[in-house]
Design goal:
alpha+beta; Methyltransferase, Cobalt-precorrin-4 Transmethylase, Domain 2; Heat Shock Protein 90; four-stranded mixed β-sheet; 38% helix
Amino acid sequence: MNIKDILSQPESRRLEFKGSMPENSDLAKTIVAFANDAGGDLYIGINDKTRELVGISEDELTKTEEQISNIIFDRCYPAILPDISFLSSNDKHLIKVSIFRGSMPPYYLKEKGKLKGTYIRVGSSNRLADEPIIAELERKKRNISFDSEEILDKTVDELHIDEFKTIYKEKTGENIDNLVLKKLELIKTVHGVVYPTNALVLFSDDELRNSMFHYAKVECARFKGVGTEEFIDQKSITSNIAIQAEEAYNFVLRHINKGATVEGVYTISHWEYPIKAIREIIRNAVVHRDYSLTGKDIKIAIYDDMIEITSPGLLPPSIDYAAMESRQSDARNKVIAPVFKRLGIIDQWGNGLKLVAEEMKLYPNISLKWKEVGLSFQVQFVKLDYIEETKLKQELQQELQQELQQELQQELQQEFRSKTLYTDILEKLSGRAMSRQELSISLGQKRVSGQLNKVLQKLITDNLVKRTIPNVPNHPSQKFELTKKGSTFLSIIKEH
């Protein structure tokens, strides 16, 4: 990446700029935060606010490099080995400090100790880690996951898992016993007693799940408009995690539209959003969320302009949403993920993001966006044409208002308001194209009337309806369909 490309990048989880050598403590915080997370690059000599290449004096490069090395050696623990290099552009010099993801976390400031000196990277800032995050870093060092840890509050025989057993039998054809639970690492033996792991508690319908993981739920909401001020519908999904994803997915389906288009002799159903991609993202949110983060739930918000899915926990360092078409797999929950694979809910080998990428190609009007928000990962499916539709609707409302105010349009005003022939035709054409004969029959007419032809011509002139074969008006296969303006206009009329 050349200097120009570097300057165009925003500060992020893996990138930071400093115009000059930072204070010793600030530099050390950034270094340990990078090492505790995905690694990162620190550029010294670039103003972080203006992206101006201010540079470092050539005479100071070696001295500054030595100073950086000493700070990292003296202040950071365990040992961190940086890669320090010099870059030049337009006679200005930069220092690049590359930190790789550490294999011995948690990394912390020596003088403050582990509990008060461990920092993590959240967005473009360094944040002091609390005890649960430090515990997760310790698990990373031991290469174990939170969901694999045993729970000593109840033995496995005391845990209520009947519904999970039923689901597992239905999906796999296999009965669950302790041998299967052990194979799936859902139970562990401690001093001769068999206890459930966090994963099995999350799959259970036991009261222990409600007390320990009351936050392991999915909050769904359909909002009116593009803000959170007014609810249309909401639901808290508090069931065991084996069925949460499908319940959340069904909530989404209830609140998005499904239309139809005619292709030849076939009518093709088409959702307004890429539902396979949405289903995959919801499943990923349930399977890969960080269950060690207490008090954080999955949130699914549906607005007029987008669907937003937020899952607790940052994206694993090895997963790159920008390279979705390549197969990627990095399970945070090393016990839960294989169980979901056995249940047929996810593909453990990284085909999920590839599936999302493929379906997004079928929806050019939907943009897939993602970002890290605090300690959560958020995915948005955004309607690109929402602003355009809103603007068109406002213009049409103004046009309609002007027309209705004119004396010559009083008859048309009455017809629209009483939902007579004009709106009847628009409604009949909503979702499918129809010929004159088909329109006449659907309207209950015995034959194509002169009034029907007159109204059709008026709707075509107003660009509310168009011919499917525009250059041959009297073609035997001629049909009529709504324009985008006509579809928006119909929605306005229904609101009046």
